[in-house]
Amino acid sequence: MDSMGLPLQGVCESVPSDLFLGWTVHYNEPYCKATRAEDFDAVPLGATMLIAAIVEGTKTVGTFEVAAVASREAALCHTGRKAVQHNGAWWYFDPGKAFGFAADADIERHRGGADTAHGGERLSWHLDGNGGYRAGWTEHLNADNVWRKVALYCGPVSELAKGLECILLLNSPCLGPSVEIQTEGIVFVVHRSILWCRAPRLYLRIVEQGHGTIQLCFSSAVTVRDFVRFLYCARLPWDDPCTGNIIAATTDELLQRTATLADLADWAEVQPLARICRAWHHLHSHNDRLHRGEGAAVGFWDNGIKQGSILGQGCAGAVLEEDVSGLLDCCTEPPDCILVLGTSCGNIEDLNSNGITSSVEAGGGNYPPRVAAHSVILAARSGFFEAVLTSNMTEKRTGIVCLGIIEELGLWRPGDLDVHIVGAVHSLLRFLYSCRTDHVRAVHAIDLLVLLQGNFLQIPDCDVLCSACKAALDTDLTLEEAAIVASRANAVGHAQARKHALERIATLVCHGAEPHAVLRQAVAGFQQELLLDLVEGIALQAVATKSVP
Q1: Please, how many CA atoms are within 13 Å of residue 212, restricted to the half-sphere of its CB?
Q2: CA–CA separation, 322 vs 465, rounded Å?
Q3: DSSP 8-state assignment for residue 26
Q4: For the chain, does the N or the C end have fewer beta carbons within 10 angstroms?
């Protein structure tokens, strides 16, 4: 699953914003604001873009008046005075001049400016430092603050979604507790952790009432398959390889699939899925009065929504990565896997009998610390965990995985404090569950970089986390952060990070940024060699500071 299908073709009018739940808001500004080509530089490569216009204060709140969808590469291709055809529309992106699309090649850009041709199925924005220009039939919007210019994007497909789709194809209950959904003689296995984070109200009805199996007599196997695929990897019916091309995407079969999937989503109380399906059905069905925007319900769109926000964010079922990340927080579906951060896990029977009630448990004595996680997510995100948790090995039977490499790398040894390695592993889990790196802290970066070196865990996007760790180390560290980084870098032999951290401490000391009492406390655990190098660094910094006029 390297790409998703396109939800609409050509230039469309009165498009429900609910169709784009889960998409990221990249640009949302009034028409009077100047738009420049560089405003779109941060759209990820491989993403799918929606370019649209919306007007405030209409009866159809949350409906884009005119919109078109294209790949980033097509929408932002530098075309000059020409236009290129993609997904049923003609696109032009001429930096310093104009950006837009039209339903046909009849585009009139006088002197390379905005499109002034007759017709409503077109949109054009100035890129020359002025606001405007048009949205459909409405032109001369250069000073207008009621109409808004909108750019959303979706994708590229996350490694979490790809991994969970692979797990789904295995249809295996071995990766943690699961329930069965049966219809038309076909059994669909759904892991309870996925059910909890993606369809929490259905989880309560099925799991907490003690049901291990549920019969769905009112839904076909195709509908249930579509529903389960959405839970695992956010796939929608028009993303199906069999109907992913735009010609098949408007067939009666696909209209039927979206309608029945919306009904099942209503029953399961997965509001975002129901709204997405109904929005698609309204847009593509000529028999549905909502395809023209008449009577469209207010969705998740807000004209004040900020750049970087995700439509539907905070509502279970809208954003796969956000939902799965919630498993690490206050989750009523307990983890089923124990990661032992060392070579010996002690008494396995004791571990199993005690169960897993939290994400982190202290090792105690000379036993390594333990971190709890969910097998299905680990297997989806790491080739190493998939191998040990699905093959005929002890780990599959016990749910206990010993990470002896942590001791081999010197990240923890019997008798050591476990706070640093536990924090680093928890940061790793947050990345695996969410595909995000904004939580990465400098104090965990050294341990993470050492653990990820050589990609022993076989994480497809390992380089993304490594880059985030390096960026965290390359910031202005506080005294406490620099002291921890220096100590961890010294312990594992990371010379560059050790040098940078010691220089940072020396700079803070020489500039009087921290009281000496705080310094003494921060470096209290330094080894003698590290402490001597720090003293030497402070002396050199002091001399350099005095020599500055």
Answers
A1: 3
A2: 17
A3: E
A4: C
User: pLDDT tens for residues 376-391?
Assistant: 999 999 999 999 999 8
Read off the tokens for 163.
């991994």
Residue 89: which of 46, 52, 60, 35 has the closest Cα? 52
Three-class SS of 373-423: ECHHHHHHHCHHHHHHHHCCCHHHHHCEEECCHHHHCCCCCCCCCCHHHHH
pLDDT exceeds 90 at position 518: no
342 three-state secondary structure = coil
**Residue pLDDT, tens place only, 290-309:** 333 343 444 678 878 889 99
Number of Cα atoms under 13 Å in the Cβ half of residue 479: 20
Give me the pLDDT at residue 434, please.
97
pLDDT band at 417 (very low <50, low <70, confident <90, very high): confident
Report how far residue 56's alpha carbon sits from residue 42's, in angstroms, rounded to the nearest whole number: 26
Structure tokens at 219: 């839904």
Integer Cα distance of 337 and 223 in angstroms: 32
The CA-to-CA distance between both ends of the chain, in Å, stands at 62
Contact 4, 276 (CB under 8 A): no
Rg (CA), the chain: 27
Q: Which residue, among 475, 345, 369, has the nearest Cα to 417 in the 3D structure?
A: 369
Record the pTM.
Answer: 0.90
C-alpha–C-alpha distance, residues 409 and 32, integer Å: 57
